[in-house]
Amino acid sequence: MKHLNAHLEPRMFLVGHSITAADILAHAHVSAFFASLPAYEQIQLPNTFRWLDHVQHLPGMLELVQQRGLFVPFPDENAQPPSKGQLKKAKKGGDMTNPKFIAAQQAKAAAKEESKGEPKAPVAQVSPATTAPSTAPEEVKQPAEAKPAK
Questions:
Q1: Which of 17, 39, 122, 148 could hold 76 in an S-S bridge, CB 3.0 to 4.6 Å?
Q2: Cα-to-chain-centroid distance, residue 104
Q3: 14 vs 55: CA distance, rounded Å
């Protein structure tokens, strides 16, 4: 992205002085990637955003871009990069949206409480028998023999 940003610094389009197929195709790919970047990184790519915004607002492009979910909104100008502590957590796998990380953090907290001698809160245990369907054949009840009527 940094190379694209540098390439676009003196230019309005990727090639030449008007829109080409290169701009349209590149927009389709770059917009998805650009939208996935955090706002503080988007701000560091002003030429790329200017180009994306320019191409998506050309006549006839806005409707196509919106229909395909490729519209890139303005990044938050007040976005701050993560702190050193947040970077360390992320480096160690500290993604708070990751269920494995959350479970590991909860286990650490429980171990810390236990080591202090405090009783820890009960944790719901799920036995494998309740989560996995049984593969054993179910017993089929045989109908009782009918008694002859008198």
A1: 39
A2: 20
A3: 10
**Which tokens hold the place of 52?**
């994306």
List pLDDT tens digits, range 15-31. 999 999 999 999 999 99
How far is residue 81's CA from residue 33's CA, in Å, rounded to a whole number? 18
* Tokens at 4, concatenated: 């694209």
Positions of CATH 1.20.1050.10 in the chain = 2-67
Q: Which CATH architecture has domain 2-67?
A: Up-down Bundle (1.20)
60-73 confidence digits (pLDDT tens)? 899 989 998 888 88
The candidate with the shortest Cα–Cα distance to 90, out of 53, 38, 138, is 38
Q: Mean per-residue pLDDT for 110-137?
A: 54
pLDDT in tens, 38-89: 888 888 999 999 999 999 999 989 998 999 888 888 877 777 777 777 767 7
H-assigned helices in 2-150: 2-8, 21-36, 39-43, 46-56, 61-67, 84-91, 99-115, 128-131
